[in-house]
Write a structure and sequence with these properties.
There is one protein chain. The protein is α+β, with helices and mostly antiparallel strands. Among the domains are: 59 residues, Alpha-Beta Plaits (2-Layer Sandwich), CATH 3.30.70.100; 81 residues, Calcium-transporting ATPase, cytoplasmic transduction domain A (Distorted Sandwich); 119 residues, Calcium-transporting ATPase, cytoplasmic domain N (3-Layer(aba) Sandwich). It has 28 helices and 26 strands. The strands form 6 sheets. A 7-stranded mixed beta sheet has the order 14-26-25-24-15-22-23, with helices on both faces. Strands 6-5-7-13-8-11 form a 6-stranded antiparallel beta sheet, with no helix packed on it. Helix 5 runs parallel beside helix 8 and helix 11 runs antiparallel to helix 12. The relative contact order is 0.10.
Length: 719
């Protein structure tokens, strides 16, 4: 369910614990970035009890999202100005408090002339939300950042320094606003995705077109999509033609032309024509809906470094309390104790990792990369072995005729005409490839008078009064066909021998077409430091050797699915972090066994999206090194966030404990780390694929001359 009022990681953790204690609830997960709570219960949860817990935590159930593109754009344009304005307000407040309150003695005058009870009332009124949340946490036996701040403000006020307590509460309120802003920034990528889906659809009903809410559209309804409109459902085009921008699904900037019989997806945009789409999926069941759900729930797959940060945050506050006690015992300086209590901020520890993960996962989804969580980003960042399936991964999975050999004096087109005519009724992929080449060359085909499929061998048909046979090598008989095409066969190509009236007249060679961008992608993987790249295939040795030789990678042939799993386990036993890249359907066992499974081109495929840890929404190998680059950049940002947080907090505690940092400045200082974290993490919202190219060029130019060839095309010893 969607919720509102959860503004920080500390609040989310408290709400999780409170929901998990409800009767019948197995688990409760609060997604800070998605503003959702996921409750797993033995039966339907008691919603009255859930709402009571939410209310006690200062939260509530939110209505369904209704964002649109305009509000998304407006939100992005005003957010930056709001953050800068808030930062300026904090700096100005610190200056005014320091100059007027401390240096000019305004605080001393206030302490002297304002009665102590009125000072208490001012502190309690100004800090009421903070004090209320602190009491709630105390009731649950929890120590939070607000607990320390409240103790500091109460201690200062109790010693007569109520202006200091007032300033502490003021900056605590400012810190709350800062955390809300940082949370909003992390959610921006998710809201950008949600805003791409329209909330209404134009449906054909009762002989007319009616605009209805998207929730009222059912499977089988025909939706009318006008030029320039966003497609609201997944479905089959039953009328009209248009150009569709699928960037929201695949990340691909080039639009595609669709016609009746083609499938289209929700959140894609039409231009140059209108469409009639028969609905197959609506709402959360669409491909785009599943993408959003995966991105939202990516927060649940916490990286190891995030779990470490959570443990550090859990120990941090008790350590601060001990440090404050030691400060008092050693120095007897109550102001230093107050400063220690108020400068400590555990929220920055909790924000350091999820802010970066949310930014990267959301930005990657817009580029056609579906990453299921921080755990997989972290594993991909340290991956050092890549295993690649062949069919449907390195190749398109669609054979293409590459060579036509004339052996009977008919010419290439004559051989191709007879072969394609004989294959006219065959459904074999090689037969489709033969017909496609004939069509491409403008060759008209004959209708065969007789047709017979020869299982495992080929076809036999009567064309122009002659018996034409197209099939495997053994059909060539003793006519010398066994010696032909050996060079093509050595290249890993499949041969089709063409006979007319028991006489060999030609040979067709077909090969599974290699994806053109693969050499460049493997080159970039080498530049990123991946040293073990290996091809795994069930094809025979010649085919595997040919493809692996073209790419300069190792290979293993004649593998069954269980053999591929054994290879993955063997590499994992050697301490390697293994990535398996497959088509997401046939390779599901190996994808699941690998540390990271990457599924190629899985638009609309349920099995592929569920099987892999990372799904590429289009068949483009350039996304593979981009995923590696995003993962490594994300982990660098996470480590920088954590390092900055640790140094900042340790320095602040040291200055506060020694009396150098007064309570007023300590209160201001504890609200600033979030700005550094959100600013650093926000860089990940604008991942630039061009940076991969520049990195590759730098790797080439900086490598020793003898290694530059390897960087251009990675060479791995043959298995």
């Amino acid at each position: 369910m969607r919720i509102r009022g959860v503004d920080c990681a500390e609040c989310a953790a408290g709400l999780e614990n409170a929901l998990a204690r409800l009767s019948g609830v197995r688990t409760a997960t609060v997604l800070l970035g998605a503003e959702k709570a996921i409750i797993s219960a033995e039966g339907p949860p008691d919603m009255a009890a859930v709402e009571k817990v939410l209310e006690a935590e200062g939260c509530s159930i939110a209505p369904p999202a209704t964002a649109d593109r305009e509000s998304m754009r407006r939100g992005r344009s005003t957010f930056g100005r709001s953050v800068l304005g808030l930062l300026g307000m904090i700096v100005l407040s610190v200056v005014l408090v320091t100059v007027i309150g401390e240096r000019l003695g305004a605080f001393k005058l206030m302490e002297r002339y304002v009665p102590w009870p009125i000072g208490w009332a001012i502190v309690l009124a100004g800090g009421f939300p903070v004090i209320r949340d602190t009491l709630r946490a105390a009731w649950r036996r929890q120590v939070t950042t607000g607990t320390l701040m409240t103790l500091g403000a109460v201690a200062a006020t109790a010693t007569g320094q109520w202006p200091v307590g007032m300033v502490v509460m003021f900056f605590m309120r400012v810190s709350d606003y800062v955390e809300r802003f940082t949370g909003e920034k992390g959610r921006q990528a998710l809201r950008d995705l949600v805003a791409m889906t329209p909330q209404t659809a134009l449906v054909e009903r009762d002989g007319g077109e009616h605009e209805v809410a998207l929730a009222e559209v059912g499977v089988g309804d025909v939706v009318v999509v006008r030029p320039g409109a966003t497609i609201p459902v997944d479905g089959l085009v039953v009328g009209g033609r248009a150009t569709v921008d699928q960037a929201s699904i695949t990340g691909e900037s080039m639009p595609v032309d669709v016609a009746p019989g083609d499938r289209v997806f929700a959140a894609t945009v039409t231009s140059g024509g209108g469409l009639r789409v028969q609905t197959e999926r609506v709402g959360v069941d669409t491909t785009f809906g599943r993408v959003i759900r995966m991105v939202e729930e990516a927060e649940t797959h916490r990286a190891d470094v995030q779990r470490l940060a959570d443990r550090v945050a859990g120990w941090y506050l008790p350590v601060v309390v001990v440090l404050a006690a030691l400060t008092f015992l050693i120095s007897r300086n109550l102001s230093a104790v107050v400063a220690v209590l108020v400068v400590a901020c555990a929220c920055s520890f909790a924000l350091a990792t999820p802010m970066a993960i949310l930014a990267s996962v959301g930005a990657a989804a817009r580029r056609g990369l579906l990453i299921k969580g921080g755990r997989y980003l972290e594993a991909l960042a340290r991956a050092d072995a890549v295993l690649i399936d062949k069919t449907g991964t390195l190749t398109t999975g669609r054979p293409r005729v590459t060579d036509v050999i004339d052996h009977g004096g008919l010419g290439e087109d004559g051989v191709l005409r007879l072969a394609a005519s004989a294959e006219r009724y065959s459904e074999h992929p090689l037969a489709e490839a033969v017909r496609a080449l004939a069509l491409e060359r403008g060759i008209s085909l004959q209708m065969p008078d007789e047709f017979e499929a020869l299982p495992g061998a080929g076809v036999r048909a009567r064309v122009d009064g002659s018996m034409v046979v197209v099939g495997s090598r053994r059909l060539a008989g003793g006519d010398g066909g066994a010696m032909l095409g050996q060079e093509l066969e050595a290249q890993g190509k499949s041969l089709l021998f063409v006979q007319r009236d028991q006489r060999l007249i030609g040979i067709l060679a077909a090969a599974d077409e290699m994806r053109p961008e693969i050499p460049e992608a493997l080159e970039e993987l080498g530049a990123l430091g991946v040293r073990h790249i290996e091809l795994l295939t069930g094809d025979h040795e010649r085919v595997a050797a040919s493809i692996a030789g073209q790419l300069g990678v190792a290979y293993r042939a004649n593998l069954l699915p269980e053999d591929k799993i054994a290879v993955v386990r063997d590499l994992q036993s050697q301490g390697r972090t293994v990535v398996v890249i497959g088509d997401g359907v046939n390779d599901a066992p190996a994808l699941a066994q690998a540390n990271i499974g990457i599924a190629m081109g899985v638009t609309g495929a349920d099995v592929a999206i569920e099987a892999a840890h990372i799904a590429l929404m289009r068949d483009d190998w350039r996304l593979v090194p981009e995923a590696f680059a995003i993962a490594r950049r994300t982990m660098r940002v996470v480590k920088l966030n954590l390092g900055f947080t640790i140094i900042y907090n340790m320095l602040g505690l040291a200055l506060a404990a020694t009396g150098i940092l007064p309570p007023v400045l300590a209160a201001a200082a504890q609200s600033l780390p979030d700005f550094g974290i959100v600013g650093n993490s926000a860089r990940l919202l604008h991942q630039d694929g061009q940076r991969r190219t520049s990195k590759l060029q730098r790797a080439r130019s900086s490598a020793p001359r003898g290694e530059r060839r390897w960087i251009r095309r990675p060479r791995v010893p043959r298995a």
